[in-house]
Amino acid sequence: MKDEKVKVDVKVEVNQKVSSGEAPKAEPKQERKEIPKPTAEELQQQVIFLTKQAAEAQKRANEAESKVKAGDAKLQAALSQYVRLQADFDNFRRRTRENDAKAADIYKSETLKNFLPILDNCELALKHMKKQEGSEAYAKGFELLQKQLLKIMNDFGVTEMEAEGKPFDPHFHEAVMMVESDDKEDETVASVFQKGYMYKDTVLRPARVQVVKNN
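Request: output the structure for the sequence above.
Response:
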């Protein structure tokens, strides 16, 4: 009720002022302050300042770009060095494997070479048994053992040379005697005194042979 009374009193007061010809007071206008225009010197100073800032920013950008390029160059150099080291390591590992394989072949061939006199003795003993009467059973058993030993040697890569009737080759044959022959060609192997053997592609022991030498 009090609020309604206040509103009524305000309206009455306004109406009285209007009826008496008294105009309501207007609010004072706020004065606008004009911003002074910069002088040519100030504009020049601003241009110089901005130019310096731009130059400094460009300088920092160039330094950053140089650092990036230097980093890229170092990275490329490191990558190239890594590739070279990897290639060197691969070559070293390959050479090591090859050297190990060669060393293993050398040790194996030297070991197998020690079995060749056993093969020679087996062959001589077998020939002697075959000449004796009543030793056929022993000869067959001994021949079986000889074949087993030859098979073991063959499994390791040892093979017998074919020398008789072949052209004489000092890389594979050792000449211990010369003989003349009308039915055999000159410089050929007439007979074999001791068999030669190969280990894979290398000579394990040259064959000791008799060579035809016709005058």
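The helical segments are 2-19, 40-113, 116-131, 136-155.
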